Fold this sequence. Notes:
By secondary structure, the protein is of the alpha+beta class. The chain has helices at residues 2-20, 26-29, 79-90, 113-124, 143-152, 184-195; strands at 45-47, 54-56, 64-70, 95-101, 162-165, 172-175. It has one domain (32-195): 3-Layer(aba) Sandwich (Glutaredoxin).
Amino acid sequence: MKNLEFLGLALALSVALVFATVPPAAAQTMPAPTSASCPALLQHRFDRLQDEKPQSLCQYSGKVVLVVNTASFCGFTKQYEGLEALYARYQSQGLVVLGFPANDFGSQEPGSNQAIADFCENTFGVKFPMFSKTSVVGRDTNPLYRQLAEKTGDHPRWNFHKYLIARDGQTVRSYASGVDPKNPAFVKDIEKFLSTKL
Length: 198
């Protein structure tokens, strides 16, 4: 009987030790939860730029999503102003702009996440969601950008490339860096996507 009690105690201690050694950061590295209401394209987590807290892109399900790779020291950096204007104008209709700072082109985003966040807020008053610095091309391309390139057959060739994702999370259009956020044809595409309900 004592042997059984000893074995039971040993087993309980072993289980406790296993759970005690699971690192607390494990939850942060887990993929975004899959859901029938969240399209595969949005089933990703990225750290928020300002505080590096993980965010699930599933929170944008059912919205029109404009994904842009950004940089602070680029000839197109002034597009931040137009992107913020689009976000302010169409947010209530279901548009969200997602910024992904990247240092992939011309080393034009060399700063830390905090430096990028300060620049965006202080220079352009950016309020649309921004995420931690990432890679959008090459071997280290983040999974969202890998999927966007596969879906459109087009990958960013410079900073401020744009992908417009419809509410269904399936239809995606790609726009070169030179397409200004104020471009009438581009704005018309956004309005068309916004007018389509699920």
